[in-house]
Amino acid sequence: NLSAGSASGASNIVAFKDGQLTALSNKGLNGPVTSLVVSGDSLFVGGSFTNTAAGSNSALRGVAIYDVKNNEWKAMEGGVNGAALGLSLSKDQLTVVGNFTQPMVSQNQPLTNVASSFAIWSTSSSSWSNTTGMALGNLTFVAPSSSNSDDTSEFMAGHISASFEFGASGFALLANNGDTGIPKVTSLSLPLS
Q: How many CB atoms lie within 10 A of CB 57?
């Protein structure tokens, strides 16, 4: 916490505005911030927090959006169920990696059929997207492969023990995909317990 000036009482994140440090809305966040991405007036924030420092929004779990223009925090649905360690924005997709198993649709409802350690947030629909891949391990870093706006490739790093092109957190349906010879994989909403 800062103890003097316009940022007095701020926790874990501040702004530099008009030549001085300034506290963000609700005095910042209640845990460490590890990654930031800016897009227009939206600042995407990742880290090990579960609320604002003032305790005003418990849906800010691991990830949040700070609306710079309106000086307010916005939830990314229910956040993620752990720490978000890296963020990367490509086109309208924010890739989130970290030490979590699922993004949350609401505070008590996880998004099913997603890969552990990474999640995709659609900035156009303001919602989590189902991913088709699967990574085993703890991802700590993600970055776009180039600044070319048509390239959606990304580099991911961390303790990765395996990765697969397709994945499901329960049952999956394999179907013939016509002439290509490559099976179509569809995740079913039937998780294993």
A: 19
